[in-house]
Amino acid sequence: MNKNIQNKEMDITNVELTPGEPTVCLENGEQGFECCCDECNYYLLCFPEFDPKNRKSCANK
C-alpha cells in the first residue's frame, strides 16, 4: 500500500469526512447531511488560521 494514500475518515454516521476541506466535506451542514463539525476530531484542520500557541487568537479585545 502506498504511504501517501490516506485512509478514508468516516464519522459515527458512516459519512465520509474530508479533513481540512470544509467546503467539500459532507458533514459541513451544506451538503444534505447534518452539520457535525463540533464533534469532528479534525475540526481545527478546517481553521488553519487558529494557532493554539498564540494566546492573542483566543483573547477578548
Give the overall silhouette.
globular
Low-confidence stretches: 1-5
| Counted beta strands | 2
Biggest sheet descriptor: 2 strands, antiparallel
Strand order of the largest sheet: 1-2
Strand content: 5-15%
Number of helices: 0
Overall mean pLDDT? 76
Structural class: little secondary structure
Q: Helix coverage percent of residues?
A: under 10%
Rounded to the nearest angstrom, the distance between the terminal CA atoms is 49 Å
Q: What value does the Rg take, in angstroms?
A: 14 Å
- Secondary-structure element string: EE
Walk me through what this model shows.
It is a single chain. The chain is largely without helices or strands and 61 residues long. The protein has no helices and 2 strands. It has a two-stranded antiparallel sheet with strand order 1-2. The termini are far apart.
Based on the model shown, name its key terms.
little secondary structure, disordered N terminus, 61 residues, two-stranded antiparallel sheet
List the helices and strands and how they pair.
Layout: E1 9-10, E2 16-17
